[in-house]
Design brief:
Shape: globular
Strand order of the largest sheet: 4-3-2-1-5-7-6
Number of helices: 8
Radius of gyration: 18 Å
Order of helices and strands: HEEEEHEHHHHEEHH
CATH architecture: 3-Layer(aba) Sandwich
Number of strands: 7
Length: 233
């Protein structure tokens, strides 16, 4: 079986979405890429999570040609592939229809950073893509979705904002591997819910001041980060 380790990682990340309550029925998907092989492993389309095994994970090349797997891949495969082709730092992609993050996507509003929990993971608001045009929807829809994400990040850094809201659709998140992509999906839902509650409590809430936003993000992710334990060689 090709990419046995990666397939297991992709399976585990998909099941993490279930454990964290981010997906219903067969909603959502996680993928991972082997840059060395130029191959992507992704959840099959419409298969219940409780039935999934590592051997069910479908492998394709970066052009979408199925290399191994008896099942049809996720219909979102072209979106995942577009992200992998354009952002070489991405090693895993997670897509959910989690309730609060999806509500922000449906409202076509970026998620503001109101507090330090958001700032710990996203160095700025979580952006939302523009609406797709009628032509884009009627064409290669999933590819156009990926292209819309890429255009949204033309002046943003996918390393420091590892998530996006696709207008009228739902969130996509990413990371250095499938596990981190799933982790970011969990955190995104959490901050989306808190942002909603914040605005309910005070509709005039202001974004966190830049200095505090920077402090929290950089103490965890900056070159002089000091959050967590020091890694020994």
């Amino acid at each position: 079986m090709l990419l046995q380790t990666l397939r297991q990682e992709v399976l585990d990340a998909n099941l993490e979405l279930v454990r964290r309550g981010l997906v219903l029925f067969t909603f959502g998907n996680v993928s991972g890429i082997s840059r060395k092989e130029g191959l992507v492993a992704i959840k099959p389309s419409g298969v219940p999570y409780e039935q999934l095994t590592a051997s069910d994970i479908v492998v394709s090349d970066l052009k979408g040609k199925i290399v191994e797997g008896a099942l049809h891949p996720s219909s979102d495969l072209p979106t995942h592939l577009e992200l992998y082709r354009n952002f070489p730092n991405i090693g895993g992609v997670a897509h959910t229809h989690s309730e609060c993050a999806t509500a922000w996507a449906q409202a076509e509003k970026p998620i503001p950073c109101f507090g330090t929990t958001h700032a710990d993971y996203f160095h700025g608001p979580v952006p939302v893509t523009p609406r797709l045009t009628r032509k884009q929807i009627g064409g290669d829809y999933e590819l156009e979705t990926g292209a819309a994400i890429c255009r949204t990040f033309e002046n943003l850094d996918t390393n420091v904002i590892p998530a996006v809201l696709v207008a009228g659709h739902a969130p996509f998140c990413w990371g250095i591997n499938p596990a981190e992509a799933a982790h970011h999906a969990v955190i995104l839902e959490y901050v989306a819910r808190m942002a909603l509650h914040t605005l309910v409590i005070n509709s005039d809430s202001r974004a966190l001041q830049r200095e505090l936003h920077d402090k929290h993000f950089l103490r965890k992710h900056g070159k002089n980060a000091y959050y967590g334990q020091v890694k020994t060689k």
